[in-house]
Amino acid sequence: xxxxxxxxxxxxxxxxxxxxxxxxxxxxxxxxxxxxxxxxxxxxxxxxxxxxxxxxxxxxxxxxxxxxxxxxxxxxxxxxxxxxxxxxxxxxxxxxxxxxxxxxxxxxxxxxxxxxxxxxxxxxxxxxxxxxxxxxxxxxxxxxxxxxxxxxxxxxxxxxxxxxxxxxxxxxxxxxxxxxxxxxxxxxxxxxxxxxxxxxxxxxxxxxxxxxxxxxxxxxxxxxxxxxxxxxxxxxxxxxxxxxxxxxxxxxxxxxxxxxxxxxxxxxxxxxxxxxxxxxxxxxxxxxxxxxxxxxxxxxxxxxxxxxxxxxxxxxxxxxxxxxxxxxxxxxxxxxxxxxxxxxxxxxxxxxxxxxxxxxxxxxxxxxxxxxxxxxxxxxxxxxxxxxxxxxxxxxxxxxxxxxxxxxxxxxxxxxxxxxxxxxxxxxxxxxxxxxxxxxxxxxxxxxxxxxxxxxxxxxxxxxxxxxxx
Length: 470
Fold this sequence. Notes:
This protein is an all-alpha fold. Keywords: Membrane, Transmembrane, Transmembrane helix.
């Protein structure tokens, strides 16, 4: 059956949904800036309503016959791709991180290690004669006094985009978006394959594929979590495709290394892998992954790179705070008892506490790996001092793998809607967060999370079995 005849048989109501959703994505992608919070949240709420219409059947367990295996909904998967393609020409309106991507790419093209210098040092001149800084691009940077923290694969993609269109800022943004689009399409295909292999409804991939936060933040605002998530899925697919063989381990570990060299977040998966495979195989897998990571970092390696990356990571935990939850509670208590902001003094302790909790979850064999990963990501972001909206896309992806014909964790989907409230901070200059909206965001998520974890544990005891594992 070809795609065209299938589309011609689509009910008119679905075409109406597609057109309405496309118009909303167009307005958010091309005609709205983050200072227009009322417009921003209004359009986003409409998109969430549109999203709910298509995923509601997946959330109310319409699949009741375990022998029935539905086919992927071609219309909806096509819509998921079209919504992303619609944003191909848009300049990112909600984040200016792309400016640092282009800056780093131009440095690499000039033969300069992007980990070596601060943008402010380069702008002052005298440290890298081969690089001519662009004042207009420099003005867009939100990190001129911080060393880059973007790993090698990101740097390569930045340089490729900057090299393909050196004279046009918009063209470079388009080239930055291309690997994200390719990765997103690849992720949808891999999700379908992995869900089918585990005997689940492949349309559960639409929980991620049609999610407005995922579409707007990754494709629309050019965040490379999309590439990271693709390589994580590819690592799982390689392992399942080739099994416990040297080839399967090498391909899977290589794909995971590429994910880590896009964003460092997938390092969180290694304890779960060790717990799943056992210490001998798990450590072997981790060492192979680490070897690939070292090889990818090698072209950039020197002592300055290590020192500067550690400096930036340390500053991240000590200097930045945005849309946090547990940290804000600790900060408020710190103000009450000490009279000053305790971020610089408790950042390290927060990291240590987070690591201990994450490891305890990772090695808790009571729960399947997908659930452990979801909860580890939840704890990680709950303990973080900064939670930008696009961070939650990883939770949405993880939630797909915890969904079965008996159970779904829905709190990541709720969070993906409520995290948009954090853009209220940009209504004024300087940025100022709205504490009431933060309380609404996290309060609703905590209530649903608590209820779902309780019900999930009750269900485990009742059925004496865990959901199908990925």
